[in-house]
């Protein structure tokens, strides 16, 4: 297994190598098309041009030669006319006589503008084609000394093809030109390929370096180091990735610090009453304590135990809420009834506190979809705050009403209000804005609970009027 893995590791291509190879392959294909398709095409076109030049020469200059066929013209005159046509066109001109024999025809050269020995090398296949079709024929012929382009025009005498005049010229110029072009394509291709390889490798390596930087940053974050942000040096996709990565890193850093703070505060909150308890227990062990002091100490012990109980219940609630494991049982609830009964629970406390609590609910039911136990918990938290964080003698008003598809439950007091700077943070766990003894978990739990029931808890505070509003779906 490890053998296979290590082979794979060695064969694995890096991003930059893969890109460089891809660019090179594209270049290679482009040059192969040039070499294998464009260059032969060029050759065909150039040869075609040469052949049509030859056939137009044949059209223009054959008449004087053709007229000698079947006449009693001396051979030297015929040769002169052939030479004249060759001189005028620059082609080699050959006049061949056709003798019809059984099963075909035979060709014999009568006059040639160049030496006869040169004619021997040519087979003049085009001449045979011209005889059989009775029309002008063009074509190329390969000889030992190179390709030759030919145009043959038939000469009719007494209804038969009596002779053929062949115009020929070496096509080696064309072939040489195309070969040169091909060679140059090869050289240019090799240079371009090399440049493409180097260029694409450099570009790809620069990209790969940037990706590597992201990878290293991600590894750091994974190891718990949120300090260093990645420099954002461009606005392209990788730059945007770096921006997104930095945003994620910041968020993770915030979460991490919130988590650490939560644990630190929670353990501090738990430690304080436990230290206090152990102090009182030690004091109570003293047997010479008088009854009054002993009772006072016991009262303190009871207070601290109550504080610990509340704190542990709150912490448990909050952790269940944040992990999403708190189970809610939503149902249709009459909020008027619920508001009245929760407010009633506070009567004994109100008597001590010297505050007044007013409940204002319209006649009839106000239905909302929610978990009644949890809504009661929120209302308790809000009324408790209105009592604890206001001077004694304050007036508290709890009201419920319908409002555009929602139900609003408001707890309002006429206390000094919440400092505007603290207002944005009162829903954070453990945040307390005044000296009243509290763990700062109440509003955090209340707003999480509201969110779980598709509702919302909001606050509006100014001196003399602080209103917490719980909005729930109707
Ligand atoms: N009705 C209110 N009037 C003034 N301040 C309030 C009121 N309700 C809440 N607060 C402020 O918001 C803070 C957070 O409240 P809470 O989360 O219930 O924690 P705790 O009551 O344990 O301090 C309180 O410490 C207090 O400063
Ligand atoms: Mg509170």
Descriptive report:
The protein contains 14 helices and twelve strands. It is α+β, with helices and mostly antiparallel strands and 474 residues long. The chain has a five-stranded antiparallel β-sheet with strand order 2-1-5-4-3, sandwiched between helices. Strands 7-9-10-12-11 form a five-stranded mixed β-sheet. A two-stranded antiparallel ribbon has the order 6-8. The protein is 58% helix and 20% strand. It folds into three domains: 62-170, Beta-Lactamase (2-Layer Sandwich), CATH 3.30.450; 237-321, Signal transduction histidine kinase, dimerisation/phosphotransfer (DHp) domain (Helix Hairpins, Orthogonal Bundle), CATH 1.10.287.130; 328-473, Histidine kinase-like ATPase, C-terminal domain (Heat Shock Protein 90). The relative contact order is 0.07. It has helices at 2-11, 15-61, 63-68, 75-89, 116-120, 125-133, 172-222, 237-284, 291-323, 335-345, 347-353, 372-388, 420-423, 442-452, and strands at residues 92-101, 104-112, 137-143, 146-157, 160-170, 331-334, 356-360, 367-370, 395-403, 406-413, 456-462, 465-473. The radius of gyration is 53 Å and the shape is rod-shaped. Bound molecules: adenosine-5'-diphosphate and magnesium ion (MG). Adenosine-5'-diphosphate (ADP) binds next to helix 12 and helix 14.
Name the structural class: alpha+beta
In sequence order, what are the helices and strands, one letter per element?
HHHHEEHHEEEHHHEHHEEHEEHHEE
Detail the poorly predicted runs: 1-9
- CATH architecture designation of the largest domain: 2-Layer Sandwich
Ends: how far apart? 63 Å
Query: What shape does the CA trace take?
Result: rod-shaped
Can you list the strand order of the major beta sheet? 2-1-5-4-3
Number of domains: 3
Helix content: 55-70%
Write out the CATH superfamily name of the largest domain.
Histidine kinase-like ATPase, C-terminal domain
- Average pLDDT, to the nearest integer? 88
CATH topology of the largest domain: Heat Shock Protein 90
Proportion of β residues? Answer: 15-25%
Cα gyration radius (Å): 53 Å
**CATH class descriptor name of the largest domain:** Alpha Beta
Ions, cofactors, ligands: which are bound? adenosine-5'-diphosphate, magnesium ion
Largest sheet, strands/sense/barrel = 5 strands, antiparallel
User: How many helical stretches?
Assistant: 14
The number of E-state strands comes to 12
């Amino acid at each position: 297994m490890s053998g296979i893995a290590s082979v794979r590791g060695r064969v694995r291509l890096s991003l930059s190598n893969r890109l460089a190879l891809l660019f090179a392959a594209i270049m290679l294909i482009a040059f192969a098309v040039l070499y294998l398709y464009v260059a032969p095409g060029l050759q065909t076109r150039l040869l075609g041009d040469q052949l049509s030049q030859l056939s137009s020469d044949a059209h223009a200059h054959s008449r004087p030669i053709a007229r000698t066929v079947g006449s009693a013209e001396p051979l030297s005159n015929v040769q002169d006319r052939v030479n004249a046509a060759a001189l005028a066109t620059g082609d080699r001109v050959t006049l061949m006589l056709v003798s019809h024999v059984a099963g075909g025809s035979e060709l014999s050269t009568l006059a040639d503008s160049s030496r006869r020995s040169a004619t021997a090398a040519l087979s003049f296949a085009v001449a045979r084609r011209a005889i059989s079709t009775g029309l002008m024929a063009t074509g190329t012929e390969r000889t030992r000394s190179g390709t030759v382009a030919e145009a043959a025009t038939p000469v009719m005498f007494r209804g038969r093809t009596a002779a053929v005049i062949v115009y020929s010229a070496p096509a080696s110029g064309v072939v040489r030109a195309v070969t040169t072009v091909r060679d140059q394509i090869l050289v240019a291709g090799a240079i371009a390929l090399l440049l493409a390889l180097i260029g694409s490798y450099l570009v790809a390596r620069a990209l790969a370096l940037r990706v590597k930087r992201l990878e290293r940053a991600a590894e750091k974050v994974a190891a718990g180091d949120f300090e260093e942000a990645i420099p954002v040096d461009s606005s392209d996709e990788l730059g945007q990735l770096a921006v997104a990565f930095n945003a994620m890193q910041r968020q993770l850093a915030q979460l991490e610090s919130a988590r650490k703070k939560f644990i630190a505060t929670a353990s501090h909150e738990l430690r304080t009453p436990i230290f206090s308890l152990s102090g009182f227990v030690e004091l109570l062990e003293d047997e010479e304590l008088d009854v009054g002091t002993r009772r006072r100490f016991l009262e303190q012990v009871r207070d601290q135990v109550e504080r610990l109980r509340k704190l542990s219940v709150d912490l448990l609630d909050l952790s269940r809420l944040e992990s999403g494991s708190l189970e809610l049982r939503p149902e249709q609830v009459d909020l008027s009834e619920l508001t009245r009964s929760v407010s009633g629970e506070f009567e004994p406390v109100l008597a001590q506190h010297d505050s007044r609590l007013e409940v204002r609910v319209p006649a009839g039911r106000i239905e909302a979809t929610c978990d009644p136990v949890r809504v009661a918990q929120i209302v308790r938290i809000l009324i408790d705050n209105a009592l604890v964080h206001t001077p004694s003698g304050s007036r508290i008003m709890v009201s419920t009403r319908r409002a555009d598809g929602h139900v609003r439950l408001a707890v309002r007091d006429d206390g000094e209000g919440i400092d505007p700077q603290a207002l944005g943070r009162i829903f954070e766990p453990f945040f307390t804005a005044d000296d009243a003894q509290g763990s700062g978990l109440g509003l955090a739990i209340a707003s999480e609970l509201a969110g779980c029931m598709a509702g919302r808890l909001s606050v509006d505070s100014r001196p003399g009027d602080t209103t917490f509003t719980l909005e729930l779906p109707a």
